[in-house]
């Protein structure tokens, strides 16, 4: 993960750019806003300079709007009735990062690269609920 010293974005909803400075990696970048290309896909382009390698180049990224930025998470509980008077309740959660295609020209990074995403799921709670009628 990268540590950002500053990230400047206009506060208005119609912002068109974002400036990022990463002093540990000696990077500065100017990125466009995410531009919708389909209902679920966004495109973003930017220009950056790496002072450590003295490289300037273009970067691009195609991402989905389903996961937001970073890790997305959901938690849920599901009840299953096995027979009258006996139910199972399962509490589970999942964290996911959706796949992303990106690339660059002139920065030393590959022209085309892909993050495959990640899924971590767990069952956090398991309950047996017994009820009986009188």
What does this structure look like?
The structure is a single chain. With 134 residues, this protein is mainly β. It has one domain (6-130). The protein has no helices and eleven strands. It has strands at residues 6-8, 17-22, 27-32, 35-36, 41-50, 55-64, 72-83, 86-97, 100-105, 113-115, 118-130. The strands form two sheets. Strands 1, 2, 3, 4, 5, 6, 9 and 10 form an eight-stranded antiparallel beta sheet that branches. The chain has a three-stranded antiparallel beta sheet with strand order 7-8-11, with no helix packed on it. The N and C termini lie far apart (59 Å). Mean pLDDT is 79; it is low at 1-9.
Name the helix and strand elements from N-terminus to C-terminus, one letter apiece: EEEEEEEEEEE
Helix proportion: under 10%
Structural class: mainly beta
> Low-confidence segments, ≥5 residues, pLDDT <50?
1-9
Number of strands: 11
The biggest beta sheet is recorded as: 8 strands, antiparallel
InterPro entries: DUF7781 (IPR056683)
Briefly, what is this?
With 134 residues, the protein is mainly beta. It contains no helices and eleven strands.
